[in-house]
Amino acid sequence: MAAAAVMSYSSTQTEARQASQASQVYLNSRLANGVLNKSTKAPFTVPEINIAASFLSSLEDRKRIAVQIREACTTSGFFHITGHGVPEETRQAILALAKRYFKDVPRSKREAIHVRNSKYLRGYEPADYTYVNPGDWEAEDAAPETKEGFNWGYEAGLDPTGGDGQYRELDGEDVNGNLWPSEEDVPGITRRSRSTMARYLVWLGICSVSLRCPWIYPKSGIARLLYYPAPSNPQPLDPKQKDKQIGLGAHSDYECFTILLCSTAPGLEILSPDDQWIPAPAVKGSFIINVADFLMRWTNGVYKSTVHRVVNRTRDERYSVPFFFSINYDQMVETLPSCVSAENPSKYPPIKAGEYVLERLRATAKDE
Ligand SMILES: O=C(O)CCC(=O)C(=O)O
Ligand SMILES: [Fe+2]
Known about the structure:
single chain, alpha+beta, eight-stranded mixed sheet, four-stranded antiparallel sheet, 14 strands, binds 2-oxoglutaric acid, binds fe (ii) ion, metal-binding, oxidoreductase activity, metal ion binding, Oxoglu/Fe-dep_dioxygenase_dom
């Protein structure tokens, strides 16, 4: 029994690595198209969907919203939600917190919780330690991504309910994987920020799960504070695939879907089906939602886990707070039977959720 369990675990890890590598091959093939200046065949839209009626109203109203969401997920893979009920002051408080973290905490103190000290890449992520597109390590003129980040996940100790003891980390361990700045290093900021951030994460997770399934633990997922400094010499949108001074390289997100809170400075760009970078429009008060890899794998590619990147082309700094909504990390992600047929076999081998995320994360980090 024990030997079989070990074997299946290691073969799952191999499959997760292969799946991670396959996603890189796909990304490279999309980016290898070089200079593109074609006209877009189909209009590429990032629709605004007001979900207010989904909380209270009739089944008919909820179906109407579901149809809009499905349409967005199967075309651009991106949409805005408004009517979500998160007060504007909460959203602004989170962005202000990101600003305080990157502006008020000295770099040496941030370095003390460097992601290299965490096997789950939690803590402070300086600009020059990761490329979200691992292919960028190989570029001849590789310059570091300009982003800086701080990453954290669920932690029962910060959950006002105390948790239910079921949360497991990416590798199945029952540990607290987070790294926080010490109270001494950052007087005042930590307790307040930890509980605000923890509440926010749990809140978003719980809100996202009206689709309750036994294998969705609403606290799984990772959140990040991201900071993109204002460039001294902002670059105009270039039809070429490769931009210098990239904030965050081209990538797809790893988990089910992403909920993105961002400041008003633009910067997010989405790769359209005919390989053009389209700046994401800004919608006041919205969260941007995008489909990520697990949803694409379950639906055999019907839902689009769309490639995107961030380039700050303004003289303003940009802050964003993505939350990567996930499933229990020990669950397998396997194409749904309704999405395969003899003519349309599964394009995606099964993978264990946590292993896949870990492989994708590890591939971003510099080998030291
Ligand atoms: O900062 C943004 O606007 C997007 C961030 C993002 O794509 C990510 O962290 O995966
Ligand atoms: Fe992303």
